[in-house]
Design goal:
With 1008 residues, the protein is an alpha+beta fold. Among the domains are: 433-681, YVTN repeat-like/Quinoprotein amine dehydrogenase (Methylamine Dehydrogenase, Chain H, 7 Propeller), CATH 2.130.10.10; 699-812, Immunoglobulins (Immunoglobulin-like, Sandwich); 927-1008, Heat Shock Protein 90 (2-Layer Sandwich). Helix content is 17%, strand content 37%. The protein contains eight helices and 72 strands. Helix 5 runs antiparallel to helix 6 (894-921) and helix 7 (928-945) packs parallel to helix 8. It is elongated, with a radius of gyration of 57 Å.
Length: 1008
């Protein structure tokens, strides 16, 4: 029965090339060997940030495509999960993951801060959480979680952290035979559907009324048995139960079984459905105890994927525990032996990797194909021949044909214009199979071929078969006469350059080309029976790339392409009639520039070119030892490289294992089966991945999120992909960034570019590396950016970014620079003060010297004044007295009296002048007050003699504080006397007033 299901899916696949599901679906595996904490995966969740979470029997695992991070219970750590047995995961609208544990109650994990909160039942505390065995979580409205538990249904308020036990034998609503509530989901009306020990249960969230169903709710046609899974999908309720897959239309109150479990059996044992995941409107994955079931409800076909020990790409384990699908379309399967994923339900490349079908051989090494007009696909392998009838979508029993062949090792298959199939074998000659499937071993009359090694067979325009042999050169076989002509190896142009012929091509202009191992490329003139050899010249880059030629093809633009073990060569001269004559007549310079070569420098992953096919867009598809290469002949550039991660049978292909069918399908065979694909339908992975900075390392130590026992340790308050910026100290000289792209299709092929703005000038191509390290970043502000592409090169050019602040060391901090400025200013101030002090001291010394000089001078003046007053005053006084006495004696002598009178006047003037001189010489008189007072005495006497009234005002005590040196004092006094004398002499005034007005800044002296 299993084989029948297999064929049904195969019918949908190859026959119509829809490939909606393939019996050779590729499963990729993740297990404890990849970092998973334990292999029994009970629940799968993709969070709002794109990361995957896997609950197991021993811990919670977070997966970013590059590795796992495990969360387990840690003794004495309240910020760890309460129990390692994880049953269900649910992310609420606030970005909190709720964790159902078996034995540890309910946990919450904040995705930003990674803070874990526990809600655990304490037997001695009636107000504690009602249960420790939690099976299912669903978020309703108004901050309510509905939780299925061993004790019943729990209503939990996230805001108040209060819980209420419902549907329990101990609760008012409890009418269950047992309290167990295993699954909780909601319909479009917001009401709950539960798995309980009473069967399928409907719970009205408004009235809290429960309704129990043991039969299909509306039709009552089938007993449901145990309930295993419930999903709301496409406005219908899907129920997985013992009876099968039930669909409920709540609105119209109808139900129907989409698939009965009894319809699928293995060796008379019913398959038990366990989990359901809707892929789209009509297609479902169903997890069972016997494998993964794919079901198409619209076409009413199904296929059961099971583990095969011989097939490493089969389902890893038949017991499926959980199912989910990530945003990029990858289907995730949790089993008892790890995680499986289906990267695409409609892969670009169908990998047919075994023939465990009726009438087919179980082989892996595929060497050749040919497709006939009537829809037969012949497949040659190292273990025999297979025939697939595309019209009947089944393999044809050709055991009778195989039994007549002396060699199972098929090297090449071709067909002629009559639809005869020609088969070349290793050491078994060659065979013809007619359209009626009659086989005949070819035994030419003139040649023994029973043990011949036939590498290649092709028919020319005249109906001859050209056969490339292994060791016997080139054969021309005439099917009409059964005659063979042999062209043995020759060095003079009369035969091929090598006894082995690996490839033969007659182009559209009927030129015959041969590919040989180590003999290069040959062009054969069949009329003259002459050969031209084209071989590699080590010193000539425009010679043939390598002398080992594996494949030949002509494209739609009349270009010849040669596949060698040293790369791809293109003949620069376009194909045309009579190529032999044109090439044979070339000058040496022209001959030496006949080829353009392509290999690793041009982007090829490998230079062994096994096969070359052209598609309708004039692109070449080439099989190599490192995948398939898509090559644009117009631009002569590599467009894409496809590898095993893209769904290829492996990276290594086989010689002659390539063929293009009538519909444009391409077949490439290798060491692990073969691939079928339509080049026009290659979509690749179109999902644009989100980019996340997943971690930081400081000085090569991972940075923790949350709190650390070491208070000095650098930690983040939340995950780096939630942070806008980080601040590093000057001592954190080595910082590493870890990043991921949330595309899980061949995540190892995700590629990255990064740039530290402010440090990097351009984007750095990290290829597939998901981390980078910076050392010795100068203090400042930077912006670290990351972009990512998926395995098909689809870029998220926006990417993500984080601001990085690097604090300066203390001696380069702002306060240090302020201190430096203050110190600089203080230094300048001290320097200036020093200079000022020095100058002041110099001035003081100078002033002191001047003061001493002045003091000496004043002392001298005072002493001179006193001495002069004493000496000169006495002398003048005596002269005056003597003159007065002489004048008395000479009273009668008028002439003498006149002389004496003149002497007396002069003495008087001399006395007055002497008094002024002595007054000026006296340092005690060096003030404005004394000067004006002296003038006042003079003016009073002078004006009185002149009969002029003199008055003064303002000569007060404050003027004593106004110093005048001897010079100023003398000049001021002389000036005032001169003004007074001139006024009386010329103006003859009646009054003279001296007015002195003293201010802080100035003193005004007015004489009027």
């Amino acid at each position: 029965m299993r084989a029948i299901h297999f064929i049904l899916l195969f019918t949908m696949g190859i026959g119509n090339f829809s490939f909606a599901q393939s019996p050779n679906m590729v499963f990729s595996h993740l297990s404890v060997n990849d970092g998973l904490s334990q292999n029994s995966v009970t629940t799968i969740l993709q969070d709002s940030q794109g990361f995957l979470w896997f609950g197991t029997h021993d811990g919670l695992n977070k997966y970013d495509g590059t590795g796992f991070k495990t969360y387990r219970n840690e003794r004495n750590n309240p910020n760890s999960i309460s129990n390692n047995y994880i049953w269900d995961l649910y992310e609420d609208a606030n970005g909190v993951i709720w964790i159902a544990t078996f034995g540890g109650g309910l946990n919450s994990l904040n995705l930003q801060t990674i803070v874990i909160e526990r809600f655990i039942h304490q037997p001695n505390d009636p107000n504690s959480f009602p249960s420790n065995r939690i099976f299912s979580i669903y978020e309703g409205t108004h901050n309510i979680l509905w939780i299925g538990a061993n004790e019943g249904l729990i209503q939990f308020n996230k805001k108040t952290k209060q819980s209420k036990l419902l549907l329990s034998s101990t609760s008012p609503e409890g009418i269950l035979q047992d309290n167990y509530t295993g699954i909780v989901t909601a319909d479009g009306n917001g009401n709950l559907w539960l798995r309980t020990d009473s069967g399928l249960t409907h719970f009205n969230t408004q009235t809290f009324k429960a309704t129990y169903f043991t039969q299909s709710p509306f039709s009552k046609t089938h007993a449901l048995g145990d309930i295993y899974d419930i999903k709301w999908h496409n406005n219908k309720l899907l129920v997985v139960c013992d009876a099968g897959l039930l669909e409920l239309d709540i609105t119209n109150k109808t139900d129907r079984f989409l698939l009965l479990a009894s319809d699928i059996s293995l060796e008379n044992t019913a398959v038990s459905f366990q989990k359901i995941y809707p892929v789209n409107t009509y297609q479902y994955y169903i997890g069972t105890h016997s494998g993964l079931l794919f079901f198409d409800a619209e076409k009413n076909v199904h296929f059961l994927y099971q583990n095969s020990k011989e097939d490493e790409k089969s389902l890893v384990h038949n017991h499926v525990l959980s199912l989910s699908q990530s945003k990029d379309g990858v289907v995730w399967i949790g089993t008892r032996n790890g995680i499986d994923k289906i990267e695409s339900s409609e892969p670009d490349f169908i990998h047919f990797r075994n023939f465990s079908l009726p009438n087919a051989l179980n082989v892996k090494n595929i060497n050749s194909f040919v497709e006939t007009k009537n829809g037969l696909l012949w497949i040659g392998s190292t273990s025999g021949l297979n025939l697939y009838d595309k019209n009947k979508d089944a393999f044809v029993d050709i055991s009778a044909i195989r039994n007549q062949m002396t060699s199972d090792y098929i090297l090449h298959i071709s067909k002629d214009r009559k639809e005869n199939i020609w088969i070349g074998t290793r050491n078994g000659g060659f065979y013809r199979i007619d359209p009626q499937l009659n086989i005949k071993k070819i035994a030419p009359e003139n040649k023994e071929t029973s043990k011949a090694r036939v590498h290649f067979i092709t028919e020319d325009a005249k109906g001859f078969l050209w056969i490339g042999t292994g060791g016997e050169g080139l054969w021309r076989y005439d099917p009409n006469t059964n005659q063979t002509k042999i062209y043995p190896v020759s060095k003079d142009g009369s035969g091929p350059s090598h006894p082995y012929i690996f490839a033969i091509l007659e182009d559209r202009f009927q030129n015959l080309w041969l590919g040989t191992p180590t003999g290069g490329l040959n062009l054969f003139n069949r009329e003259k029976e002459k050969f031209i050899y084209f071989q590699n010249q080590p010193d000539n880059p425009n010679s043939l790339a390598n002398d080992l030629v594996l494949s030949l093809t002509e494209d739609s633009n009349n270009q010849l392409w040669i596949g060698t073990t040293g790369g791809l060569s293109k003949l620069t001269m376009p194909l045309q009639p009579n190529m032999f004559s044109k090439l044979n007549g070339l000058q040496k310079q022209e001959y030496d520039s006949l080829f353009v070569n392509f290999g690793r420098p041009e982007g090829f992953p490998n230079e062994v070119i096994y096969g070359i096919l052209e598609d309708r867009q004039q692109n070449l598809w080439m099989s190599t030892n490192q995948g398939l290469v898509q090559f644009d002949t117009k631009t002569e550039t590599v467009l894409h490289i496809y590898e095993a991660d893209h769904g290829l049978q492996s990276n290594e292909f086989n010689q002659n294992g390539y063929h293009k069918g009538y519909s444009g399908l391409m077949y490439f065979g290798g060491i692990n089966g073969f691939n079928i694909f339509n080049p026009e339908n290659i979509k690749g992975n179109t999902f644009v991945p989100e980019v996340r900075i997943t971690g930081l390392s400081i000085l090569n130590r991972p940075v923790l999120v949350g709190q650390s026992e070491n208070k000095k340790e650098f930690v983040l308050d939340k995950e780096p992909y939630f942070k806008e910026s980080i601040t590093l100290s000057w001592q954190q000289k080595v910082v590493s960034f870890h990043f991921a792209a949330t595309s899980y299709v061949s995540p190892q092929k995700n590629s990255f570019q990064y740039k530290m703005e402010g440090f990097d000038q351009d984007w750095v191509n990290a290829a597939n590396a998901n981390q980078t390290t910076y050392t010795n970043l100068d203090p400042g502000t930077y912006r670290f950016r990351v972009k990512a592409a998926n395995n098909s090169g689809v870029w998220n050019d926006v990417g993500t970014a984080i601001i990085v602040h690097v604090n300066p060391p203390p001696w380069r901090s702002w306060y240090a620079y302020v201190a430096y400025l203050l110190l600089f200013l203080a230094t300048i101030y001290a320097f200036i003060k020093y200079r000022v002090n020095k100058a002041t001291q110099a001035l003081l010394r100078k002033a002191e010297i001047e003061r001493v000089r002045i003091e000496e001078r004043e002392t001298f003046r005072k002493r001179s004044s006193q001495d002069f007053h004493d000496e000169a005053g006495n002398k003048i006084t005596r002269i005056s007295l003597v003159t007065a006495l002489a004048k008395q004696e000479a009273a009668k002598d008028e002439k003498l009296k006149n002389y004496l009178h003149k002497i007396e006047e002069n003495v008087q003037e001399l006395n007055t002048g002497m008094r002024d001189f002595i007054w000026a010489l006296d340092p005690g008189k060096d003030t404005l007050f004394e000067t004006l007072h002296r003038f006042e005495d003079f003016a009073s006497g002078f004006c009185e003699d002149a009969q002029v009234n003199f008055q003064s005002e303002g000569i007060d005590e404050p003027l004593k504080s106004f110093p005048l040196n001897m010079n100023y004092r003398r000049h001021l006094l002389l000036m005032l006397k001169e003004v007074t004398h001139n006024s009386i002499k010329h103006a003859q005034p009646k009054n003279i007033h001296l007015i002195v007005v003293h201010h802080k800044e100035e003193t005004i002296i007015t004489l009027s």
